[in-house]
């Protein structure tokens, strides 16, 4: 009986991905966690951006993350009580202050947009306007070699590619949940079902195939 219980506990530990084990960068004053759900009160006037177009650099929005090396698939469902221009809830992958991406829903000019900011020293921004508001959205990022593919879905079944970007390979990254409120006085952002799935290293798979 004790052995069965121990094996069960080990299996649960090996398979679990607990939000409690993650950590904050720019922890907000108010947030709460319930199982696999995280809700944060995004503070006023915070964002991630570097230099280009606007001429300023900011690195002060909340980011709740874990660290991964190698190749992986990260996925999360996001929602928010968006209020003013540029309110956003995102999946974020970050090496450091000069190398990161954030992608999710951004509220711009009264409409919901699929948004992606990719930063390598300077930031760029790509958006896709949605034809109507959505209650929530799934975002998935797949890191392979020196690239990250970003997908979105409304049902966690049918995913559409929205961007492919470069990210330095063989470098550990922080992966997690971010939100920003550049213009407003704050809003609530929510995240659930966050997972990161290890993917075998592509180069090693190719080596094994050549040398089997």
Structure description:
- The strands form three sheets. Strands 1-6-15-8-9-10-11 form a seven-stranded antiparallel beta sheet, with no helix packed on it. Strands 2-3-16-7-12-13-14 form a seven-stranded antiparallel beta sheet, with no helix packed on it.
- It is built from two helices and 16 strands.
- The longest helix is centred in the first third of the chain and has 14 residues, at 2-15.
- It has helices at 2-15, 202-210; strands spanning 23-25, 31-34, 37-42, 48-50, 57-59, 63-68, 71-80, 87-96, 99-108, 111-120, 122-129, 137-144, 147-153, 160-166, 173-180, 187-199.
- The protein has 212 residues and is mainly β.
List its traits.
7-stranded antiparallel sheet, 212 residues, disordered N terminus
Mean pLDDT: 92
The amount of beta strand, in percent, is over 45%
Please provide the count of β strands: 16
Series of H and E elements: HEEEEEEEEEEEEEEEEH
* Amount of helix: 10-25%
What are the segments in which pLDDT stays under 50 over at least 5 consecutive residues?
1-16
Tell me, what's the shape? globular
What Rg is obtained from the alpha carbons, in whole angstroms? 18 Å
Numbering strands along the chain, what is their spatial order in the largest sheet? 1-6-15-8-9-10-11
What structural category do the secondary elements indicate? mainly beta
Largest sheet: 7 strands, antiparallel
> How many helix segments?
2
Distance between the termini: 42 Å
């Amino acid at each position: 009986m004790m052995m069965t219980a121990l094996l069960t506990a080990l299996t649960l530990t090996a398979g679990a991905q607990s939000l409690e084990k993650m950590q904050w960068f720019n922890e907000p004053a108010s947030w709460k966690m319930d199982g696999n759900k995280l809700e944060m009160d995004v503070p006023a006037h915070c964002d991630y951006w570097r230099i280009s177009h606007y001429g300023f650099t900011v690195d002060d929005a909340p980011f709740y993350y874990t660290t991964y090396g190698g190749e992986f698939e990260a996925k999360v469902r996001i929602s928010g009580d968006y209020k003013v221009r540029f309110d956003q809830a995102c999946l974020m992958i970050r090496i450091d202050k000069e190398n990161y991406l954030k992608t999710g829903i951004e509220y711009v000019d009264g409409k919901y947009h699929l948004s992606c900011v990719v930063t390598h020293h300077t930031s760029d921004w790509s958006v896709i306007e949605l034809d109507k508001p959505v209650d929530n959205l799934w975002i998935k990022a797949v890191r392979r070699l020196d690239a990250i593919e970003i997908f979105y879905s409304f049902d966690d079944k049918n995913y559409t590619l929205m961007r492919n970007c470069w990210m330095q390979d063989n470098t550990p990254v922080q992966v997690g949940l971010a939100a920003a409120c550049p213009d407003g006085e704050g809003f609530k952002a929510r995240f659930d079902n966050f997972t990161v799935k290890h993917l075998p290293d592509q180069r090693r798979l190719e080596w094994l195939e050549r040398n089997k």
